[in-house]
Amino acid sequence: MNEGSDSRQPSAPDRRLAAAAESQFRRFGYKRTTIDDITAEAGTGKGSLYLHFESKQAIYMAVVEASLERFVEAASRLVDGSEPVPTRLRSLVELTIEHYGHDELLCASLFGRSGLVDGEVARMAADFQRTRIRDLIRELIVIGQRERSVRAHVNADAAAAVLFEIGWAVVRTALEGDSQIPLEQALTTLNEIVGLGLLPRHD
Amino acid sequence: MNEGSDSRQPSAPDRRLAAAAESQFRRFGYKRTTIDDITAEAGTGKGSLYLHFESKQAIYMAVVEASLERFVEAASRLVDGSEPVPTRLRSLVELTIEHYGHDELLCASLFGRSGLVDGEVARMAADFQRTRIRDLIRELIVIGQRERSVRAHVNADAAAAVLFEIGWAVVRTALEGDSQIPLEQALTTLNEIVGLGLLPRHD
DNA sequence: CTGATGACCAAACTATGATATTGGTCACAC
DNA sequence: GTGTGACCAATATCATAGTTTGGTCATCAG
To answer: What domains, with CATH codes, occur in chain A?
Structure first.
């Protein structure tokens, strides 16, 4: 069995299908990609797709999940860092802007403003991403509380939800280029407010 | 001249047109309200509308501006209060939720999720509302800094922009009923983070 | 003469029917 | 037993005819 440089290499069909799907979804978006597009690129018959994935939606979600894991790996390294929690939060926001600014597929499904994907599958993909990112924030708060660098009085779930909304607003504004103030200033101000609060401190 | 209880009372045509427009826009939304609807209710000819307002958009914006002033008056009373700034902020968020939950016309133009209004005029109306609310927040911060109850180090413009995004996210989530956590808890957590920050305090 | 009116019209929108496309299925071939 | 692609119901798209509407301005009334 020669498994050399043949471009139609005999890897598992589900792998080939997933890779073809990612390629087609990134080029045409969910709405315009057909099952025939995917299976032609994967070199399988149309019906074979349903041996491995339940539906067009299911293979799209698989692509979204794999794409998001790339982001989550980088983000987890930030969460595990040693800087103050607000600084790590700021870095997480920056990484999100950077990553989503380069990943049209994730961006389209999370913000839903393009013609590339809409309807139920877009909602599912967005919920998945939101939940995953919110979990990262929660983890960061719990770590901070364990390190005693975050006030113990803060409820981790509620704070994660609130901070997610905050970070998401900044990310959305940055990606839409629709900001009232420069991004750097917004991040700095956010860092201050989230870290130190508005009230005077007597540290 | 008997100006008694006649329903077609001889008030100024621009007043009658504005009132008729508000009535029709609230009932049918911008998209479905026609100029004939408005002028029929106002008791004028169709062309008379253009003696007082430049376009359908212009009369809609006049209605939005008048409606928003009702909200701003109540909100200004909060801003001028004497409680801690984060508490006033929280009250402002609560008032916004309350007011927008009852004003479908403002809500539709600000959030743009209904079929009542869309396109350029919705953007204009939303920008107007955002700017006005952001100004209220800025005023609150400046007052707090003057009272020395807000840290002087915070840039008022940047903080107003960031806090607006924060409050807006909470308002939107509350009105969409799509929250991960109870609203009361979100408001409490928001109050804590915005007021005290995440970092330990040695007050 | 001045201001109000509503008929008019170009542009936009809507409805409808015909046609094309596509996700999913399964009988058939290997 | 497994993979395939023809098939089909459901959905989407397109073309066309008809309707509606924002804005204009000639006309009329006071």
So the answer is: 12-53 (1.10.10.60), 64-196 (1.10.357.10)
Least CB–CB distance from A186: residue in B134, B161, B190: B161
Task: Report the gap between the CA of A148 and the closest CA in chain B (Å).
Answer: 8
Count interface pairs A-B at CB distance under 8 A: 142
Contact A58, A144 (CB under 8 A): no
Q: For chain B, 203 residues long, give each residue's pLDDT as a single digit of tens.
A: 333 333 444 568 889 999 999 999 999 999 999 999 999 999 999 999 999 999 999 999 999 999 999 999 999 999 888 888 888 999 999 999 999 999 999 999 998 777 889 888 999 999 999 999 999 999 999 999 998 888 888 889 989 988 898 888 889 888 887 777 888 888 888 888 888 887 777 76
Which residue of chain B has the CA closest to A155?
Answer: B189
Nearest residue to D20 (CA, C1')? B34
* Chain B contact for A170 (CB, 8 A cutoff): yes
Q: Give the nucleotide with minimal C1' distance to the Cα of A57.
A: C23
In this structure, are residues B63 and B104 in contact, taking their beta carbons and an 8 Å threshold? no
